Amino acid sequence: MVRLKDIAKKANVSVTTISKVVNYNDTSVCSEETQALIWSLAEEMGYKARRMDKNGSPGAVTAYKLAYVIGMPNYVLSGTYTYQIIQGIEKEAFRLGVTMAFSCLNLSLYTARSLCDKLLEMEVTAVIWVAGSDEEYFSLLRQNNIHVVIAGIEQNMLPDDVDYVGVNFYADTLYWLRTEIFNRFDRIGFIGPSSQARFEAFKDLHLLMGRTFEPDTIVELDDFDMEKARAAVVKWINKGARLPEVFFAASDAIAIGALSAFQMMGISVPEQVKLVGFDNIEVAGYVSPGLTTISVPAFQIGVHSVKAALSKSKGELDYTLHHIFQTDFVIRESL
Questions:
Q1: Among 266, 305, 251, 300, which residue's Cα sits nearest to residue 67?
Q2: Of the residues 30, 181, 235, 291, which has the fewest C-beta atoms closer than 10 A?
Q3: What distance in Å separates the CA atoms of residue 17 and residue 34, rounded to the nearest whole number?
Q4: Residue 123 lies in a domain
Q5: Which domain holds residue 220?
Q6: Is 159 exposed, middle or buried (0-12, 13-18, 19+ CB in 10 A)?
Q7: What is the domain count for the chain?
Q8: Rounded to whole angstroms, how far apart are CA atoms 154 and 304?
Q9: pTM score, two decimals?
């Protein structure tokens, strides 16, 4: 697939100039001679331009085909964080008239080679990677000129040269825990994977605030599965460990699993232990008690992932893009 920067390099003008000429027919940005050269190169190189419609609005972006891949299992249940990202992806693609040529909800069905072959067969120009990170896949996609935009995963999992749309999990966890939890409570526990930036922020905050880190307040998990979280919390309770004042769960799914465990074991939330999640998935406001959580704009992450994928497909950006959204703290009855 020919990109704008390929034409720009031959014409010795900026990518912006190329885009304005071939996609928007802007005759004011360069001389007639340069415009003629640009059109000649675009035709010679087989570039398919995006044109404005008769009302002056962007027409359908038919030249580009996108795909999205869910890189981890158990991440596509209705109402979950990843599901909200997918909703944003699909709505924005529909709004722009972009073809979503392929979607993969179960990466275990594909090797890196077979997935790459499938995307090439479908003429996909860019893939939005939601959850998980695997350099073998990314490397092969790059070798075949398929752009990768990663949506919403933790930044410590990112390859250096792949675009990212999401939040700063470490910095935001550190900020909200410090201002809303550590400044109010003395003994705080954690439920979730210890390999994630959310746990690192939780652990580092003890050091920053001169607190003693207590390993017996940690309920370790290997993923973000709700049922596994419930089982792990029940097991932790049965060990007879002393409850912290507050548990911070690495995701709302984990928090809801923990809430179910507490209720099953006769432990009242928030009277005996308070609970804070992360994501603000739809169901967080409907469980009882309502879940206090760090809110991530998952839908907007999906929307901007499409925009980033299109920009790279069109060659408008020749640098690695990191689009970082802000989070918010949503207080409900569990705190």
A1: 305
A2: 235
A3: 10
A4: no
A5: 169-295
A6: middle
A7: 2
A8: 17
A9: 0.79
